[in-house]
Amino acid sequence: MNQFLKHEEILSKCEKINTSYELDPHFFDEIVDELLDSNLDTEEVILQGFQKLLSEVDHEIDRMEQFADMRPNCFKGCAFCCYFPIVLSRLEAKMMFRSIEKFPQDRKEVIYNHWENYYEKQAEKLEQGLAMDHKDPATKKDYKKLNLPCPMLDPETQLCMAYEVRPIPCRTYLNYSDPQVCAENDLPKEPFSYEFLYDYYFSAVNELLQVLLENGEELIVDYPADVWSYDYLPAWIKQWREGTLDEV
């Protein structure tokens, strides 16, 4: 059983990471180089790059946790953080949905059927949440208070329906203290965010797309325009379902 760290202990270990841990971007660069040297078609290069770079964020967090001797106490089916607003770029949304399209047919159908029910059942909360300014820091707490689940959260199992392609915010928010703090607080102070890893991940995604574009490849995204547009995940899914995601 994992030991629950106190808030002061978490801060101390995170300070150790901030001051002493040296992050090596080579791990991200190597993924890009291997894919660019492969014989895969352009779409597969992009989607594999997207998924492998997301996974590398997980690996980097694991290396930092080993360095600081800390392990998260998040457990399977613990979905308190799945009620936070998840903001991502149009670029990431398109790559995520393209990846889901390649899931086995039965798995896709479960997700698409869930979305049908979700957008009907959560219509009122979605209208309130999506009207909030995602750039305003105060929005996070107001959104959480809506008790609006992520559209990728399975209501029966409380598991992510697209776990391997879940966005960066879902990967970088971890709790090393008693999981009860997440149950009792809208914005608990104990969990730690590795959101700074987004820059390394997104820089590698950009490098991959830039090289493909310079090589005259036809991309599955509108690059670089899609890089600069951000919104809530439920908003992007809504556009995807309506067939308007490619409209700028």
Number of strands: 4
How many separate structural domains? Answer: 1
How large is the share of residues in beta strands? Answer: under 5%
In what order do the strands lie side by side in the largest sheet? 1-4
Rg on CA atoms, Å: 19 Å
Order of SSEs, N→C?
A: HHHEHHHHHEHEHEH
- Assembly of the depicted chains: single chain
Largest β-sheet summary? 2 strands, antiparallel
Taken from the alpha-carbon principal axes, the silhouette is: globular
Structural class: mainly alpha
Average pLDDT works out at 95
CA-CA gap between termini: 49 Å
Which parts are unreliable, with pLDDT below 50 for 5 consecutive residues or more? none
Range of helix content: 40-55%
Quickly count the helices: 11
